[in-house]
Amino acid sequence: MSIKKIPTTISGSLPKPFWLAESAKLWGKWKLKGKELELAKFDAMKIVVSDQLQAGISIITDGEQTREHFVTTFIEHLSGVDFKKRKIMRIRDRYDASVPVVTNKIVRKKSVFVNDAKLLRSLTKLPIKFTLPGPMTMVDTLYDDYYKSREKLAWRFAEVLNDEAKELSKAGVDIIQFDEPAFNVFFDEVKDWGIDTLERATKNIISKTAVHICYGYGIEANINWKNSLGKEWRQYENVFPLLSKSKINQISLECINSKVPMELISLLKGKDILVGAIDVGTNKVETPREVANVLKKALKYTNFKHLYASTNCGLVTFSREVANAKLKALVEGANLFSKELS
Ligand SMILES: [Zn+2]
Predict the structure, then answer these.
(1) Is the pLDDT of residue 125 over 60?
(2) What are the chain's domains?
(3) How many Å apart are CA 241 and CA 238, to the nearest integer?
(4) Ligand 1 mean position to 137 CA, how many Å?
(5) Separation of 13 CA from ligand 1 center, angstroms?
(6) Cα-to-centroid distance, 204 and ligand 1 (Å)
(7) Distance from Cα 342 to the centre of ligand 1, integer Å
(8) For residue 131, how many C-alpha atoms fall within 13 Å in the half-sphere facing its CB?
(9) Ligand 1 centroid distance, CA of 261 (Å)
């Protein structure tokens, strides 16, 4: 029996062209406005789709070309949040950030990313994935002056996300991924309402659903945090048993160059495992052998049919050359390991 190839995908962002936004930077500001900005975003999406196809990636994303920030761009399209009023708040229990303020009931007046999803759908026949922020991470990126309860605000976001996800699903998106880095921090809340609100966000969606939980982009605050976590990072141990009981289909996690014990994957029986095999904290491009070795270790704790090769987090902070080289290494590593298995 011949073994099929391990599918490859990325967890989210790719670098933006220099003419669209400040490049190789987290949350780089747009360089254009109005109609020009809209056209440029679509052009950028065409480039990143082409780059992924060129590299041989099997599940294609928009590389988050139409958003400045993985959380707040979605929120900008909702009413109830005042972006002019800002507060300094400790986020992820780790660093202070200037965040917008919830001042009224959250309402999604119209779809946010559906046109982007339709364009992505038109650019490839391969399966496509679209990312949305998760309810808990949204709550943890805002100052709430209205609901006065993280849980209540999360339930409201879950309803709004669900409306968006249903439309993305109808637009032909195969996988909808929710980004929940906050799940690695607030374990009591994950148990009390984090999983429930995430499931609410995915209610009645035809597409497959995924959740991405990482240790963040390679910024200083995250690097310092990781250095404080000791020899073994066991954060996933709190969350995975709960996720395994949920209806979420796929879990995207950080593996390469992290101190996550691989055996924690066995807590996710029956789920697709999107193994992070590309480090987003270093410009050094992985070799296919290094990628294959991570997949090999992961396979000890899951079935081949559930194994996917992915990135630890988004690649937005890299130059396009480095990001493309990393995409290529991901595909070559997955192919190398598939070949060895067959
Ligand atoms: Zn991430």
Answers:
(1) yes
(2) 34-341 (3.20.20.210)
(3) 7
(4) 11
(5) 9
(6) 25
(7) 31
(8) 29
(9) 18
Rounded Cα distance between 212 and 324, Å, is 21
Q: Can you point out the beta strands (E) in 208-313?
A: 208-213, 250-253, 272-276, 307-310
Q: Is the pLDDT of residue 122 over 80?
A: yes
From ligand 1's centre to the CA of 280, what distance in Å? 9
Which one, of 124, 158, 161, 133, lies nearest residue 45 by Cα? 124
DSSP reduced 3-state for 88: strand
In tens, the pLDDT along 238-295 reads 999 999 999 999 999 999 999 999 999 999 999 999 999 999 999 999 999 999 999 9
For residue 138, report the distance from its CA to the centre of ligand 1, in Å: 14
Q: At what angle do helices 114-123 and 34-55 cross, to 10 degrees?
A: 40
Q: Are strands 78-91 and 250-253 parallel, antiparallel or unpaired?
A: unpaired
Q: How far is the CA of 35 from the centre of ligand 1 (A)?
A: 30
